[in-house]
Design brief:
alpha+beta; 4 helices; 146 residues; 44% helix; globular
C-alpha cells in the first residue's frame, strides 16, 4: 500500500479515542445540574492528542440565563476542566487549562490554600503536584511552543 496515502488517512484507533474522550466530556458536563441538555459538540483536533487530551466545545441548554450556553471541556489523562465562553479558541482553552493547573501545582508545593484554585480531584500532595506538572509541561511543549 502507498505509504503517503496511509499517512493522509485517519486511523480508526484515533477516531475511537476521540469518541471515548467525547463521551467522557459529555458525562462530565451532564454531572452538573446547570447543564440540562447537550445540543451540539465540536472537537478541536489541532489541540488534542488521542486519549491523552481532548478539547471540546459544547453548546448546552443551561438551567438559566446566568449559565453560558457554550462550554469548553478539556478531558483526558489529566484532571477534567470546563471553561466558559469567554475562551474563544482551542489554543486559548489549552492556555487557560495550563494556567489553572499550574496555579493548583504552585499552591500545593507552597503549602497554600486551594480554596481559590480550580478543583482538582487528586490529593494535594507534592507527588501529585509533580505528576501533574510533568503532564502540563508535556502539553505546553506539544501544543503551545512554536
Amino acid at each position: 500500500m502507498n505509504e503517503d496515502l496511509l499517512n493522509e488517512l485517519t486511523e480508526m484507533d484515533e477516531i475511537h479515542c476521540v469518541l471515548n474522550l467525547q463521551k467522557e466530556a459529555e458525562n462530565y458536563l451532564k454531572s452538573f445540574d446547570w447543564c440540562l441538555k447537550i445540543k451540539k459538540s465540536w472537537y478541536d483536533s489541532g489541540f488534542s492528542s488521542y486519549d491523552i487530551i481532548g478539547v471540546f466545545l459544547f453548546e448546552i441548554e443551561p438551567i438559566n440565563e446566568n449559565v453560558d450556553d457554550f462550554i469548553w471541556v478539556i478531558v483526558g489523562d489529566l484532571p477534567t476542566v470546563y471553561l466558559d465562553k469567554t475562551v474563544t479558541s482551542g489554543m486559548e482553552a489549552i492556555e487557560v487549562y495550563c494556567d489553572l493547573m499550574e496555579d493548583w501545582i504552585d499552591n500545593v508545593k507552597n503549602g497554600q490554600s486551594l480554596e481559590e484554585c480550580f478543583p482538582v480531584p487528586s490529593e494535594p500532595t507534592i507527588e501529585n503536584a509533580d505528576l501533574l506538572k510533568t503532564r502540563i509541561e508535556l502539553i505546553k511543549e506539544i501544543f503551545l511552543t512554536e
